[in-house]
């Protein structure tokens, strides 16, 4: 299982330079070829950045129709644990939360363009590693 970071969705839905790679990865997850998880935190962060009803709706429909994608809703305890990890692993809160959930769920890697994850013990991969 893979944990998807927010920037993978934003890259695609904002039409940025690596959108094609993200689309191909998300298609593999959508078909069930790969298993991945996304946090509710990621979903809300993406919605806030997308900030257009048509983009948000398209994003949510894609999540809803993805066979290989699970959505993890963090608890207050998860968020407390992530906040306690921040100084130890040298990440800000949102990255610490992603890392914590990935470790808790036994994800093999975090899929992200954010190189801050490189300083953790969990491998960071990019969409191009799966297409």
Task: Write out key terms for the chains shown.
single chain, 131 residues, alpha/beta, Rossmann fold, 5-stranded parallel beta sheet, 5 strands, globular
What does this structure look like?
30% of the residues are buried. A 5-stranded parallel beta sheet has the order 3-2-1-4-5. With 131 residues, it is α/β, with parallel strands linked by helices. The longest helix is centred in the middle third of the chain and has 14 residues, at 76-89. The two termini are 16 Å apart. Helix content is 53%, strand content 12%. The protein has one domain (2-130): 3-Layer(aba) Sandwich (Rossmann fold). It has helices at 6-13, 19-30, 40-50, 53-64, 76-89, 93-105; strands at residues 2-4, 36-39, 69-72, 109-111, 124-125.
Give a quick precis of the structure:
The chain is an alpha/beta fold and 131 residues long. 53% of the residues lie in helices and 12% in strands.
Secondary structure layout:
Elements: E1 2-4, H1 6-13, H2 19-30, E2 36-39, H3 40-50, H4 53-64, E3 69-72, H5 76-89, H6 93-105, E4 109-111, E5 124-125
Parallel strand pairs: 1-2, 1-4, 2-3, 4-5
Helix pairs in contact: 1-2, 1-3, 3-4, 5-6
The helix-and-strand class reads alpha/beta
Output the CATH topology.
Rossmann fold
Based on CA atoms alone, the radius of gyration comes out at 14 Å
The fraction of residues assigned to DSSP E strands is 5-15%
Which architecture name does CATH use? 3-Layer(aba) Sandwich
Strand order of the largest sheet: 3-2-1-4-5
**Looking at this structure, what is the CATH superfamily?**
5'-nuclease
Oligomeric assembly: single chain
* Pattern of helices and strands: EHHEHHEHHEE
Categorize the overall geometry. Answer: globular
The largest sheet, given as strand count, sense and whether it forms a barrel, is:
5 strands, parallel
Q: Please give the number of β-strands.
A: 5
Give the helix tally: 6
